[in-house]
Amino acid sequence: MTADATTPPHAPGRLPAVGHLMPLLRDRLAFMQELRSHGDVVQIGVGPRPVFVVNSPELIWEMLTAQSANFSKGRLFDKLRLFGGSPLPIAEGKQHLQRRRLMQPAFHRERINSYIDRMSTTAEAALRTWEHGARLDVLNELQLITQGVVMSLLFDSEPARDPAQAIMNSVDTVFQAAIRRTVSPVSAWEGLPLPGNRKLRAANALLRRTVGDIVTAHRTDPGAHDNVVSLLLEARDEDGRPLDDDEILSEVTALLAAGSETTAVTMAWLLHELGRNPDIEERLHHEVDTVLAGDRLTADHLPRLDYTRRLVTETLRLHNPGWIVTRQATVPVRLGTALLPAGADLIWSPYALHRDPELYHDPLRFDPDRWLPERPQPPRGAYIPFGAGKRMCIGDGFTWAEATVLTALIASRWTLRHTPGTTVRPVPAITVHPSSLHMVLEAREHAAAREAA
Questions:
Q1: 190 DSSP assignment
Q2: Of 92, 143, 155, 447, which is most buried by a Cβ count within 10 Å?
Q3: CA-closest candidate to residue 144, choices 130, 131, 134
Q4: CA triplet 276, 452, 368: central angle to 5 degrees?
Q5: Which CDD domains match (predicted)?
């Protein structure tokens, strides 16, 4: 061991046997933010298990890029195997590289541009059901819309509202189980016939039955479809082998889950911020009205929606959906002055990173203009909403496009107002979602008439 290399220090407040489990359970977000003041890498205890928290943006970047081969995805991703199999978000090593190559054509820029029309069609159909003066459960509604968009691109179709709600509830059940198992210091209870475990099995069965029926239909009549499932059915690995049904089932289920959750949560926070900042909302309306000029939104409009894009960028900073990302060292590694043994569990928090006052001026202020090119920008590694390196989320471009499309479409038609007495707080589950976000719908023509009066 060299003189400048040491085992990372323990964070204060560690208790015998439980470690830092109490602050993690009490207020995860505040705890992760507070840990940033204790060093570039700090050690906490989750029960008796040591976990190393990486706070430095330079070291997070190094871990995700230059040293990525020294880490597996870690505990959270292992628990996400609840969705079945080893789809791309969970796969490791050679399997991850092969799956990413197979999936990449579905997420090329040109392919994403081809999705814009279907995104718009699906979202517009949902928005036509909204009613002026209605009270909207914003997160639930956006989850249904984003799930509908993903399903229309995966399958060329989307279910009716009640089956869609059942699918969404099942995805949420699996996600909630994964995060509980990640932060739990013991795992013996996971195989017991407890009510939560029975609910989890039922949710997974519904998801795989739903997706399995669709995959079977595509195999029966492959020429009738042009979608992501079709691409997976046609894909071949390096040996010319097609994916089997279970592999396709796992990939599609993972895409359905991941592709709807992040965008819905981001959009919910964005609408929350518009409701709190009427000056920002007015600027958005002006841009959307000017760029679209009453026309139907197409891929050609997206490059001109500069302010809309900055709104999404700032939402992914201030309200990043990820409060925890895990890694595990596969060999002894050094990060800065921290020496970590093989098998060490590591975590980092995009949510806490993006709110660090050392990296962002007035970090709790929602300010889309902080992303203007003439303004000082954060250092490399300080803004990574989708990760970095070879394991960076393959769907980042899809999420940027979908969030921009949904923001523009909603802003072109609707204003959403907070219900009186609303208190919205962040809830760190699998993503950091709003606790309860109910807003009143106001059609923009009604808003204009009211202002004129």
A1: G
A2: 143
A3: 130
A4: 30
A5: CYP170A1-like
Over its C-alpha atoms, the chain yields an Rg (Å, rounded) of 22
Encode pLDDT of 395-404 as tens digits. 899 999 999 9
Token match 């020496």: residue? Answer: 339
Tens of pLDDT along 264-294? 999 999 999 999 999 999 999 999 999 999 9
| Cα–Cα distance list, 170 to 163, 207, 451 (Å) | 11, 7, 43
CA distance linking residue 128 with residue 234, whole number of Å: 36
The CA-atom distances, in angstroms, between 220 and each of 210, 224, 225 are 16, 9, 11
How far is the C-alpha of 64 from the C-alpha of 264, rounded, in Å?
26
Q: Which residue has the tokens 């660090």?
A: 356
Q: SS in 3 state form for 302-340?
A: HHHCHHHHHHHHHHHHHCCCCCCEEEEECCCEEECCEEE
| Residue 347: both structure tokens together | 């975590």
Per-domain residue ranges of the chain: 21-452
Q: What angle do CA 283, 116, 251 make, to 5 degrees?
A: 120
Closest CA to 208 of 150, 177, 248, 149: 248
Q: Which residues of 374-390 are buried (b: 16+ CB within 10 A; e: fewer)?
A: eeeebeebbbbbbbbee
φ/ψ (deg, to 5) at 238? -65, -25
DSSP 9: P
In the 8-state DSSP scheme, what is residue 266? H
Residue 345: CB atoms within 10 A of its CB come to 18
Phi, psi (5° rounding) for residue 405? -60, -50
